[in-house]
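By convention, the token line describes the chain's fold. To illustrate:
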Amino acid sequence: MGFLPFLQNQNQVMTVEGLNPIKKFRSIALVFLVIAVSCCAVFADTPRKAKRIISMSPAITEILFELGVGQRIAGITDFCNYPEATSSIARVGGLLNPNLESIVALKPDLIIHAQENSRIQEQTDNLGIKMLKVNLTNIENILKSILVLGNALGATETAQQLHGRLRQGVDLYRSRLDGQRRKPTLLVLGKADDPLRDLYGAGKGTFLDELLTMAGGDNILNSSMAIYPKLSKEFVISQSPEVIIEAIPRTQFPLEEQLVHKARWQLFPTIRAVKDNNVHFVAYDYILIPGPRLLKIVDALAKAIHPKLFSENQ
């Protein structure tokens, strides 16, 4: 669902004149919803008192449940599907196309969003709803954001415990890989149905790039100017990474499909990863979510890159 016409640019004076009857009705309805929320909703004086929170990020939603404040969430995005308790929470659209009618109707007293998602801030500035933004761009900021959310929502002790567990895990991986040779690795986003033309990788500075480095890989895309560059077969062949990992945002990736994909990589027998049978698949539906489950992603990447060091019995 796209943005409502009269809210697309709040720097301009917009009216409902000239809209078709359906759009005009929706626009007028939203105006009344805004008035209703302004008159009837009781806004929290501080985030600590917020009882009707809207989370605008899957990572934020996961953190809130880990902090034990999931029962205070009134709305989430269409992409928030963990934990299971999210199935009964109202949806407010996507990250880039939030449904303002749904947001207003829920009468929230706090909206929490990621720092890079400025659109929701712009679209709700006139609604009088308190906002809290957090930085989830890298591991250090994720850990800090856990403490920020815990302190803001009255869950300081739980936040400190979660922060401590994740910090301990991060330090453990870094210490185990200290002194180990970093292997040139290509991290492919999504499954490469056609390795001749369907390759996109995780570039420098991304969340997955940081996890890949923590797992002992040397990202072959570190020199790329793009965050998620589209790759050519010539580039991959010339770089000849020792390890290729396909990061697949799915809960399951059966062995039969893995074999099909490995067979497709055989089109490039000169690549070291293909020649040495070092093409791996990491299938998690949260692989792109910078949240509390990040250590599970690191573990899967580390086992693919350094299988002897991170074998199941280690």
